[in-house]
Amino acid sequence: MKINVQKSILEIVQGDITQQETEAIGNAANAALAGGGGVDGAIHRTGGPTLMAELKAKYKGCPTGSAVITGGGNLKAKYVIHAVGPRYSGSPKDPELLSSAYRKSLELCTQNKISSIAFPSISTGIYGYPVEEASRIALKTVMDYLKEHPEIKMVRFVLFDSNTLKVYQEALTELTNAF
Ligand code: ADP
Asked: How many domains does one find in the chain?
């Protein structure tokens, strides 16, 4: 599924984020930037040890709702943007923290002249954020950013499993019909 937001493209596909050829890929990292399972484990395995070395050298962790950038090591993508989404707790702060993780990632793209990025579904794995709500927040945040930032030409959500793909597709259909 693919839509235009002004002159930019927003895409939703099923796949593996580690194989994307976008300039950057997003990672669902933890606040310690310590490496973990899920998509973070896959990105570090494929990217190789330079990712962790750069994280350790440059950053002392990353607050929830924010993001940091490294090179892509052995990945096809030149950069990895390590975003820290919230662990779902049902708190009213969860939506803003999740939105902020995506927004800060996109701001890093702008600052580093990166025009395409692929995101995984941040927080909806080990961190337990319900996909229905998380998908709406993720898509709305990206659409709002693209409206103001034509320098980002393409954002692709790469969903690992078919259920997450379906929920994102439904959320995007709802959001586009609401315009
Ligand atoms: P979090 O701790 O933020 O919840 P997870 O890594 O547990 O992060 O999960 C986030 C999402 O990433 C889940 O939907 C999971 O299925 C998905 N995922 C896991 N591996 C990959 C991969 N290689 N490519 C894309 N998505 C992946």
From this structure: 1
